[in-house]
Specification:
Structural class: alpha+beta
Family: Belongs to the acetyltransferase family. RimJ subfamily.
GO molecular function: protein-N-terminal-alanine acetyltransferase activity
Protein name: Ribosomal-protein-alanine N-acetyltransferase
Bound molecules: coenzyme A
CATH topology: Aminopeptidase
Order of helices and strands: HEEEHEHEEH
Helix content: 25-40%
GO cellular component, one term: cytoplasm
Number of strands: 6
Shape: globular
Strand content: 35-45%
CATH architecture: 3-Layer(aba) Sandwich
Largest sheet: 6 strands, mixed
Keywords: Acyltransferase, Transferase
Number of domains: 1
C-alpha cells in the first residue's frame, strides 16, 4: 500500500497524508485522482481512529489540505464523495461549507456492490480567505453564540 501511495504521489496523481493528534498517528487523508490540464481537480478520502472521533480532527485536516491544494499545489477544485448513510462524514463537509452537487448513482464498487455517492465540492474562488480560517471563524462564532459572556460578544 505504501509503495502504491508513493508511486502515485511521484507521478503527481496523489497527495497522501497521515494525521497526527497529540503525537499519535490517528488517521489518513488522501487527495487522489489529481487531474491537471483544464480541470486541475482532485478528490479527497479520509478516515480517523474512532478513539478521537468527534473532536473536529477531520474538518481541521481537510481545511489544512484544501488550503495547501489551492494555494501551493495549484488545484482549482476539490471534491468529496460520500455514501448517503455516512452521517459523520456528511457532517464534516457540511461544517466546512462544501457545496452539494447531488447524487452519483452506483458510483463506486465498495463491499461487493456498486454504491450511490453524494458529491460535495469546493473551488478556490469559494474560499478566498482559506478554508481552515473560515472553519475556525465559524467555530468561534458558534462558541460565542452558546456562551454570550465570551469576549467580543458583549454587544451582540
Ligand atoms: C467521518 C470521519 C472522518 C469524521 O471525522 P471526525 O474527526 O470525527 O469529524 P468531526 O469531529 O467533525 O465529527 C463529525 C461527526 O461525527 C459524529 N461523531 C461525533 N462523535 C463521534 C464519535 N465518538 N464516534 C463517531 N462519530 C462521532 C458527529 O455526528 C459529528 O458531527 P457534529 O460535529 O455535528 O456532532 C470519521 O467518523 C471516520 O473516520 N469514519 C470512518 C471512515 C469514513 O467514513 N470515512 C469517510 C468516507 S467518505
Amino acid at each position: 500500500m505504501v509503495r502504491h501511495l508513493r508511486a502515485e504521489a511521484a507521478a503527481g496523481r496523489m497527495l497522501p497524508f497521515v494525521i497526527e493528534y497529540q503525537g499519535r498517528l490517528v488517521g489518513q487523508l488522501t487527495v487522489a485522482g489529481i487531474t491537471w490540464g483544464s480541470m486541475c481537480s482532485g478528490h479527497v478520502g479520509y478516515w480517523v481512529d474512532e478513539a478521537v472521533a468527534g473532536r473536529g480532527v477531520m474538518p481541521t485536516a481537510v481545511g489544512l489540505v484544501v488550503d495547501h491544494c489551492f494555494r501551493t499545489v495549484g488545484l482549482h477544485r476539490i471534491e468529496v464523495c460520500i455514501r448517503p448513510e455516512n452521517g459523520p462524514s456528511r457532517r464534516v463537509v457540511e461544517k466546512l461549507g462544501f457545496r452539494s452537487e447531488g447524487l452519483r448513482p452506483r458510483y463506486l464498487h465498495i463491499d461487493g456492490a456498486w454504491r450511490d455517492h453524494l458529491v460535495f465540492a469546493l473551488t478556490a474562488e469559494e474560499v478566498p480567505e482559506g478554508l481552515l480560517a473560515r472553519w475556525r471563524r465559524a467555530r468561534e462564532q458558534q462558541a460565542r453564540r452558546q456562551d454570550p459572556s465570551k469576549p467580543g460578544n458583549a454587544s451582540k
